[in-house]
Specification:
By secondary structure, the chain is an alpha/beta fold. Helix content is 45%, strand content 19%. Homohexamer.
Length: 167
């Protein structure tokens, strides 16, 4: 069975992420989307919320599984008994970082390869950080994220803003 892992924080998931998921799922028998629970960052959504959003956003892709993980991606890939890591590339700046990670992972386990997919041109500019910034200023994010995420992002930003004002 050809199994791959697409790891990331997906905070929030964007149309760019979903594009990479759909395209990579077509290349393998099973794609596991690994949602990173990174204790060093303060995400907009909890790992449980991100998993639930992804479950809803990917419900039409039959060979996808969504799981959360902590630690190194390479360890999660081994735990999943996968042979490939999927990474999306938007620009040359992504490539520099991703190449270093792929080479590091290859040294850590020679049996696991990294597959790079360039993002579709319509999403090449898109990042989760940009989505959060546009939403924080009240901009329309409906062209960047699936409908299941739009209101959740605005609500989270509104909650955080109100909580800061109370302090």
């Amino acid at each position: 069975m050809r199994r791959a892992v697409y790891p990331g924080s997906f905070d929030p998931v964007t149309f760019g992420h979903l594009d990479v998921m759909a395209r990579s799922a077509a290349l393998v028998d099973e794609l596991i989307v690994g949602v990173l629970n990174n204790n060093t960052k303060t995400p907009l959504f909890s790992v449980e919320e991100r998993v639930n959003i992804l479950l809803e956003a990917t419900k039409d892709i039959t060979n996808i599984r969504i799981e959360s993980f902590t630690g190194l991606s390479i360890d999660f890939v081994k735990k999943c008994d996968a042979k490939f890591i999927v990474r999306g590339l938007r620009a040359i700046t992504d490539f520099d970082y991703e190449l270093q990670m792929a080479q590091t992972n290859r040294i850590m386990d020679q049996d696991i390869d990294t597959i790079f997919l360039t993002t579709s041109l319509e999403y090449a500019y898109l990042s989760s950080t940009t989505v959060k910034e546009v939403a924080a200023y009240g901009g329309d994010i409906s062209k960047f994220v699936p409908p299941v995420v739009v209101d959740r992002i605005y609500n989270k930003i509104w909650e955080r803003k109100n909580n800061k004002e109370r302090l």
